[in-house]
């Protein structure tokens, strides 16, 4: 299967590192031009440099924007007024008991994890419909379906994406535009690596032992029994962005390593 996105322009939020960067990289490998988003000029420039070095001749632009507020969305739209592919990936998490987590955390996480994607969808959808081709991909989480008591606000934002993405998809009937959501499970990232480094340092364990303990005690149902790599998640996003996924619309796809113990 050869995926060719030559001539397509993608916007990937939260793409200066982690899963978002791997999505940008995967899309670029397929020939797409990509707008990279991050909160600081340094991280965005670093990501752009890596992409330009690996894929010379393609067009990469940066959008420095903090999506905790509406003006962050405006900054992305200013940098990329139109796009063919939108991957709403930017998200943050605050770990705290649902019984003590204040309203402000919910409001902050909904701005970043949920509303930023909805605002971008509202802006980009008319152009996609007019061109009769477009892809919107929202990154959700296994937490949307099996929430932890100390990640309630994060889980709520990710659950909201599932229903809202389906609502957005209803406006694509009879067109070449698709809207889908990807449920992501435990994935290796700079954040998880730093956390496991801290655990290893304090416990005297190796990183391999920390990972094994996680899947023994926290996610024993995982069929993968390891953290997914960012590029493994990106592979799903790139597929959904391609013409091979033209009949996949308004649905939820999973890259969560079988942690949910359910078929659907």
From TrEMBL:
It comes from the Bacteria. It holds the Pfam family adh_short. Belongs to the short-chain dehydrogenases/reductases (SDR) family. This is SDR family NAD(P)-dependent oxidoreductase. It comes from Candidatus Andeanibacterium colombiense.
